[in-house]
Each structure stands twice: as structure tokens, then as C-alpha cells.
Amino acid sequence: MLKIENLTATVGEAEEAKQIINGLTLEVPAGEVHAIMGPNGAGKSTLSYVLTGRSGYEVTGGSATLNGDDILEMDPEERAAKGMFLSFQYPVEIPGVPVMTFVRTAMNSQRKLRGEDEISAPDFIKKSREIAKQLKLDAEMLKRPVNVGFSGGEKKRLEIYQMMMLEPRFLILDETDSGLDIDALKTVAEGVNAMRSPERGMLVITHYQRLLDYIKPDKVHVLAAGRIVKTGGPDLAHRLEAEGYDGVLGEAV
Amino acid sequence: MDCCGGTDEHEDDCTEVTVKEGIDAKTVEAAKALESENYSAGFSTEIETEYSPKGLSEDTIRFISAKKEEPEWLLEWRLAAYRRWLTMEEPTWAKVRYDPIDYQEYYYYAAPKSGAKYESIDDVPKEILETYEKLGIPLREAEVLLGVEGAAETAATAREAPRVAVDAVFDSVSVATTFRKELEKAGVIFMSISEAVREYPELVKKYLGTVVPQSDNYFATLNSAVFSDGTFVYVPKGVRCPMELSTYFRMNAENTGQFERTLIVCDEGAYVSYLEGCTAPMRDENQLHAAVVELVALDDAEIKYSTVQNWWPGDEDGKGGIYNFVTKRGDCRGPRSKISWTQVETGSAVTWKYPSCILRGDDSVGEFYSIAVTNGRQQADTGTKMIHLGKRTKSRIISKGISAGKSDNTYRGLVSINKRAEKARNFTQCDSLLIGGRCGAHTVPYVENRRADAQLEHEATTTKLSEDQLFYARQRGLGEEQAVALLVNGFVREVLQELPMEFAVEAQKLLEVSLEGSVG
Ligand SMILES: Nc1ncnc2c1ncn2[C@@H]1O[C@H](COP(=O)(O)OP(=O)(O)O)[C@@H](O)[C@H]1O
Ligand SMILES: [Mg+2]
Q1: Which one of B477, B489, B492 has the shortest CB-CB distance to A81?
Q2: Which site from A240, B428, B431, B450 is most exposed, i.e. has the minimal number of CB atoms within 10 Å?
Q3: Is the Cα torsion angle A230, A234, A236, A240 positive or negative in sign?
Q4: Any domain includes B403
């Protein structure tokens, strides 16, 4: 499904560009959930931006394909239409644009790019209600401008709401657990688990083992200095929690 | 620093606006098909036109007055204005730059040759009807607009669309006014100002020039001398006007100035909502537009005036485009009266416009909601003046300026609290949004306060369209331009909400078109 090979990428303008991704190789087959853990500043968010096409993040080598399609040449919206979804570490506020308007515009835009019909207003509202209920989101919140005045936890839940509405094929969750209390964490994890399917792949970026108790990964990768330095099963997350990155990475080098 | 001194004011408006659904879908399509780059209203109409002699002189004014079969007093009024104008100087305090205007190079009157006012819509030349149709203004929407009243009812209820009566002005003359009969039944007078001068001379004489005096400012004085056509509205005591009223201005003839004059009077306890839209063909020369709008609200009356201005802004290099110098002012003459200006300004090469309120009556209320968009090389200097004279008068100013390309966008406002205006209140909010790094946004708020008990609040923000927001929206699947449009719509939402529904939809589309190519 998602295949990244020997990827290198820089961040920043021209002369000040810094290489942050340093020959990263990773494959997430359809139906699997992989976790990425790593110290602060390792390049986890950078990887998520490179994969989703944020400007200012330049690919200097290697490749990334989604179901065989080279995604690196595509505009961010084309990647979205192909099914790439990023749950942002820091969701962005959009004053004056109600959540429902935003998501519906996004959904229809994706559909248009894929040559599909628009969703009807009643269908949209029905779907939105169901998902909001599942995520314990107040319907009133969906009428408010995107993320404006939302608490940290509300913002993260709203990311998951958008994800469930848009039904992407490949999900990247960037520290979705940070800022969530345990109840919210469970709700979010339920939402994410409901999305697991044989056609879908997921990359779950986190600092903490805690989230992985609820979203069980098939594999755990350790990202450090812009590369995957260690890969293991779910138990690797436990070891990281117990021994810290230094302990685990010491042996990897 | 330049300043909007005591008496200068101006403003204006225009746009392509779809009034109704149904027929419009088709006419809008037609207009789209004619689209030339971004400006879909940029076509011109082949029609035989009768002009006044080129240039400005007493003879020109006599010619205009004679064409309109005006009474002597009005001719004298015009001539007095003209003589005054000759002694005045063009103002230079606004933050706009343009080549000197040669007032002798313009025609001050242009009219379709086949006759000024048409007896019935069937007499309106088909080219003109087609023009309005292309613009999405359905003058001939089935029989509805022909004044066949039953048809109007059925059609409107069938669509559940609010009905809008239209006065259409083509260059210097009004070519058609719709729903007249039905409005007459309610006692509402809605006609071109030329007709009103003939049919209701006393009313016109009583109010004309009482809000914007002849001597008000350079462009208003010019307008007083040469005004061509425009709309007259009178809503009698206690009447709530049964439908929205609107005027569409279309500049077609080359090298022609448009100088419309609008006068709206709401008698005690009356209410009217009025919409104004304008367009002009794309021409290499700069066309001149110097309108005057006067509003009078008597005791407990309310006037809501909305404008969508989409005159041709000129090309990317700043060639051509409309010079838009307009004076708009409302007089809250009676206690508890209210005047509300809402404007969406997206067109014109140069805009110079300050719709204002004189809050004379005690407890009267003035509002100004504005969206001004500049792109390419457009320059806009716009804002408002709220002159608090009466006790407990209140005003509210919400201005949203959006600058893109190499444009310049200035908000200029004055809040003046007179000695007598006890406990006056004003709230002002000016927000600027910058798209790209080569445009400018400026905020010039003036306050003159003579009272210690006045409550004045002012908030101003300037933000850049953020890369974060843009990426967030694109990651969710929105194309770049769509993302910009959505963010901009969010930015202006407070003001869009003030517009009548179908106008708001149109304004939204217009914003999108105006900002095309502004990023990337
Ligand atoms: N826009 C940027 N300009 C310069 N450096 C950046 C930029 N964004 C991130 N970086 C740097 O890239 C490195 C990786 O950051 P990030 O991907 O956010 O780390 P993580 O998400 O793993 O904590 C850090 O050293 C950070 O300072
Ligand atoms: Mg991060």
C-alpha cells in the first residue's frame, strides 16, 4: 500500500534548507497499522508533511508510492483525493468557516477530483450526525468555525471526525494522543479502530506506548535522525517505554 | 498624512448580480460563456447610441436637461453646480494614484438611440434586454417583470424566492423598471429619477441635495451638474416595502462617464431594503463613474442599502478600468431611525467611496459593513463617516479589506461625536487580510470626540493568509484557489451575513473570481 524507499527531504528555503529525512525506508501493507515512535525532533512530523505535500518540504531523493502511484509529484489535494489523510499534530484554526461547511467542501472537492458525484445535503448531515455521536461530539460544535476556541482535546477529536467523514485509504495520525485525557483517548481510539479494514493502512505517530494499548499496531518503527533505525512488534513499544530511546537505540547502532 | 476632511465623501457601486434562479441559470451560463479572462461582465453591446456633445460646458448641461425634459429649476440647479465645480479642485488626500482626468474627453450623456424611456418592456431594444440577460438580470423573466402581477406571484412562490423589483440603467438612461404597479399599490414610488422629476417634482425638490449638498465635494458637485439617471424611491409613512428594490447600472458606451443620482426617502416608520449592482465592459480607456446617493430616514424609518460593485478593474498591468468616485450619504433625520450600508467592493481600478451616516435624530443608528477586495493593480480607498449629532446615537463599523497582487487597500473612517450627542456609542472593527507579499493594507481611523460620556471601541487586525491554513485545507482535498476562497469567505463572513441572501451568494462567487490567480 504505502511504500517509501530511501527517501531524503529538506525543510526550509534555499540556502537555509536542512536535510531532515535521511534515507528513510518503510512499507505499510494494506490492512496494517504501523506505529512510528521517536525522540523529539527526529523528523516524524516532517515525514507526515512530506508524504502529504506541504510546501517548504522538498524531496531530494528516493520515492514514495501509494498503491503503486507516485504521490510525491502530486498536489496536496490530489493526494487527499487518492486517500491520504493527515491528522495534524497541531490542528489549524479557520475563522469564519463552520466545520460542516469545511468538511462538506472538502468531501465534494475530493469527489470531484475522483470524478464522483457530490454528496447530497441530507446524506451528508446524516453521516455527520452518526459520526459525531460515535465521537461524542456536540452537534453545536460542528456549526462553529473550524478549531476556533476548541480545547486541545476537542481539536484532536475533530481531526478524527474529519477522518471518519472523508473515509481516507491511508491514515497518518501525528501525535493524536497528546492533549487527550483517558476517556477522550478511548473514544478517539474507538473511532480509529472502526476505520481499520483490509483496504486501509495506517501510520500512527506517537511518543507514548499508552495510545498503542488502544490502537494495536502490527509493527513498531523507531525513527531517529530522519531514518527508521529499528523495527519490531508491539513489544518494542513497551521496551521503549521501559528503557527509553537511548537504551533501545544504543543497541541498534 | 492625508485626511478625509469634513465634507469630502464619495462612493459607488456595481456588479453582476443574479436576482433570481431559474432563468438566471441560463443567462449566467451565457455570461460565463462570454467570459473574458476573469471578468464575465466585460462584453459590450452593439447598439446605436446617441451622445451629448463631447466634453463639459453649459451647453452640455442644457443638452442633458433638455433631453430629459426637465423643469427650469432643475436646469438652474445643474448650472449652479457646474459654475461652482469650475472653481473647485480635484481632491488628492486619498491614497490612490491615477493619471489626471481630462474632463473634456468624456461624453456626459449617452443613450440608446431608439428613445429614452420605453413605454413598455416590449419597446426596450432587444440588444439591451440581451445585455441584462447575459448579466443575469432577468428584466424579462417570463411575464413576471412585465408587471403581469398574477404571474409574479406564482413564479415567486413557486421558487420560494424573494421578489426583487429592478430599475435598469443603461449608460445614462433608465431602460426598464419592474413591478411598478404592485409597488404603487403599496404606495411605494420606485422609478428613475428623471421620471420622478416629472411626476413628483415636489418630492424630488424637497429632498434632492439635502443630504449631499451641491457644494459637498468635487465629484458630488460634478454629479449635480451632469447627473444622468438613477433611481428615486419614496416609501410612505408606516409602509414596509413589500419587496427588495434594486438598480442595475451598466456602462456600455465608450468614453462615457456615468453619473447616476439616487435618492431614497423613507417616511415615518417606513422600511426599505435596496440593492445596487453595476458592471461595465472591458475597455482600454479609463471610464469615469461619479455617482451620488442620498438617503433620508425620517422618524422610526429604516433603510438598508446594499451594494455589490464589480466595475471593470482594468487588466493586470493596470490598463483601463473604472474610476469610481462616489458620494453616498444617509441622513437619519428622525429619532430612532436607522440606516445601514453594506458594500462588497471587488471592481474598479480606483475606488474612492465613503458611505456615511449623519445621525441627527436622537437614538438613531448607523451601520457600515464593508468588504473591499483589491487584486492586480487596483487601488481602493474606502470607509465611512459616522457623524453623531443626536442623543444616544449608535454606530457600528465592520470593515474587511482583502489585498492581493500589487494592489493597495485603504480603510479610511471618521467617527465624530458632536457636543450635543450625549452617550453616543461607536464600535469599529477593521480587519485586513493580505494575500502575497506585494500588496498593501492601510487603516486610517479618525475620531473626533467632544463628549466625555461617549463610548468608543476600536479594534483592528492585519493578518496574512496563512500557509498553515492553506495547507490544512488542501490536505483535506480543496484545490488551492478553492482553499483561498474558503478562507476569504470565512474572513468576511460577518459582513456577508448582512447581505440579502441571494446577494450574498453572488457576492461569494464574485470574491472567488476577483481573487483568482492571487496565490501560487
Ligand atoms: N519549517 C522548518 N524549518 C526549519 N527546520 C524545521 C522546520 N520544521 C521542522 N524543522 C526541524 O526539523 C526537525 C524535525 O522536526 P519534526 O519533524 O517536527 O520532529 P518531530 O515531529 O519528530 O518531533 C527539527 O529539528 C525541527 O527543528
Ligand atoms: Mg512532531
Answers
A1: B477
A2: B450
A3: positive
A4: yes
Task: Name the closest ligand to CA A13.
Answer: 1
Confidence of residue B140 (pLDDT cuts 50, 70, 90): very low
pLDDT in tens, B314-325: 777 777 777 888
Q: How far is the CA of A173 from the centre of ligand 1 (A)?
A: 17
Residue of higher predicted confidence among A129 and B379: A129
In a domain, B479, yes or no: no
B102 touches chain A (CB under 8 A): no
Q: Which domain holds residue A103?
A: 2-252
Per-residue pLDDT band for B145 (boundaries 50, 70, 90) equals: very low
B474 touches chain A (CB under 8 A): yes
Question: Is the pLDDT reported for residue B149 higher than 70?
Answer: no
From start to end of B333-393, where are the E strands? 338-345, 350-353, 356-359, 365-374, 379-388
Please check whether residue B468 lies inside any domain of the structure.
yes
Q: How many domains, chain A?
A: 1
> ipTM of the assembly?
0.97
Does residue B415 carry a pLDDT above 70?
Answer: yes
Which strands sit side by side in the sheet containing A219-224, from one edge to the other?
Answer: A84-87, A170-174, A201-205, A33-37, A219-224, A227-232
If you write DSSP's letter for every residue of A59-99 in order, what string do you get? EEEEEEEETTEE-TTS-HHHHHHHTEEEE-SSPPPEEEEEH
Within-domain flag for B13: no
- What's the confidence (pLDDT) of residue A8? 96
**A20 C-alpha vs ligand 1 centroid, how far in Å?**
7
The ligand 1 atom nearest the CA atom of A57: 1
Burial string for A40-68 (b: 16+ CB within 10 Å, else e) reads eebbbbbbbbbbbbbeebebeebebebee
**What 8-state DSSP symbol labels residue A1?**
-
Give the mean pLDDT of B493-516.
78
Assign residue A172 the CATH number of its domain.
3.40.50.300
> What are the backbone angles phi and psi of residue B94, rounded to the nearest 5°?
-75, 155
Q: Distance between CA atoms of B160 and B158, rounded to whole angstroms?
A: 6
pLDDT at B520 over 50: yes
pLDDT band, very low/low/confident/very high, at B220 (cuts 50, 70, 90): very high
Lowest mean per-residue pLDDT among A173-177, A224-228, B48-52, B128-132? B128-132
How much is the pLDDT for B345? 85
Q: Compute the count of residue pairs across chains A and B with CB atoms less than 8 Å apart.
A: 81
Which phi and psi (to 5°) does residue A151 adopt? Answer: -75, 165
Q: What is the pLDDT, as a whole number, of residue B154?
A: 38
- What is residue B4's predicted lDDT score, i.e. its pLDDT? 32
Ligand 1 pocket (Cβ < 6 Å) reads A 11-12, 18, 20, 38, 40-46, 56
Q: What is the predicted pLDDT for the residue at B124?
A: 62
Cβ proximity of B262 and B167 under 8 Å: no
- What integer best gives the mean pLDDT of chain A? 93
C-alpha distances in Å from residue A90, one per residue of A51, A172, B162, B285: 17, 13, 44, 50
Quick check: B187 and B178 in contact, CB under 8 A?
no
Give the separation between CA B204 and CA B261, rounded to whole angstroms. 12
- In this complex, the residue of A56, A76, A93 whose CB is nearest that of residue B475 is A76
Contact A92 B474 (CB under 8 A): no
Interchain pair B476, A80: CB under 8 A = yes
Grade residue B509 by pLDDT with cuts at 50, 70 and 90.
Answer: confident
Q: Whose CA is nearest to atom 6 of ligand 1?
A: A11
From chain B, the residues in CB contact with A143 under 8 A are: none
Q: Which of A102-106, A170-174, B515-519 has the lowest mean pLDDT?
A: B515-519
The dihedral over CA atoms of B180, B183, B189, B191, expressed in degrees to the nearest 10, equals -20
By Cβ distance, the residue of A56, A96, A103 closest to B490 is A96
Q: 3-class DSSP state for residue B134?
A: helix
Query: Which structural domain, as residue segments, surrounds residue B230?
Result: 40-472
Give B300 Cα–ligand 1 centroid separation in angstroms. Answer: 61
| Count: domains in chain B | 1
